[in-house]
Amino acid sequence: MVSETIEITPEDIFGLIALSGDAKASYHQAILLMQEGKVEEADAAVKAGDATLKEAHSIQTKFVTLEAQGKTATVGVLMVHAQDHLMNTILVKELLGYMMNMQNEINQLKGMDQK
Prior knowledge:
This protein has helices at residues 10-35, 39-68, 77-110; strands at residues 5-6, 72-73. By secondary structure, it is mostly helical.
C-alpha cells in the first residue's frame, strides 16, 4: 500500500503559532484582570482565549485526522515549533482555572470589591 503524502502549508503552521499566541495572551490578560478584581472582564478574556484556542486546535486536529487515515506529512522545525506553542497554551489554560480561583480567594481576603 502506497501512503499518500500531505503538505503542511506555511499558512497552517503560522496560523497555529499565531492563534496559540493570541489565546495565551488572552489567558494572561485574564489573570491580570483578576488581580484588579475585574471578574467579569477576566471571564470574558478566558472565553475569548478559549475560542481562539479552539481555532488553533482545529488546525492540529486536521493533521492528526489525516495521519490517522494513513496519510503522512514531512514535519519540519517550524511545525515542531508550532506544536510547542499549542502545547504551552494548553498548559496555561489548564493552570488558569486554579490561578483564577486562587486570585479570587486572595481578592476576597484583601476585601476587594468584585467589579
